[in-house]
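Here is a typical protein record:
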Amino acid sequence: MDLKVQRDLFIGFFRSTMLGYGGGPSAIPLVHAEVVKRYRWMNDEEFSDVLALGNTLPGPIATKMAGYIGYRVGGTLGMINALVATVLPTVILMIVLIGFLAAFRDSKIVQGMTQAVSPVVGVMLATLAYDFFKQSKKNLGWTKACVLSLISVAAFVLLNIHPALIITFFMVYALLYKPSKEKKQDHQKSVSGGM
């Protein structure tokens, strides 16, 4: 058992949960910053896979990601550690602040603070989406990345298809899709292997 890894897991998920005002989706860019940029437990592609898989499963995204990443980095103890770091601080703060929040929920200041945070969360999510788009452009090329993005936006906005179904469709597509470079390499290996 590596205590430094367990400490880093707790600190990373605690920090992203405490600063992720607005729920699970607002914490995703913060989890990305901790997992990919600060501790380098995953790269962008692995993180986007975890995020896509987490979005297809029921329940809060933050706890699903914490559980998987914690298990991957630190085993069963890491999973428990990351889940505790994600859930416990929020529960304690809710219990402590419930009376305060109830007393001031109609305050213009509190409502203004809540409204002011929304654009920040939107910018953080847009930045993360742009990073994922750049990653897909590198793997697929501009044309396919743009076409797949437009298809997903049209399916979600115009056809009102649930995001989990769109993500599932693209996961199946990714499993069946084999880039032409890999096909050529496979063909070359089979030709050279036959000689």
User: Anything to note?
Assistant: The chain has a mean pLDDT of 81. DSSP finds eight helices and no strands in the chain.
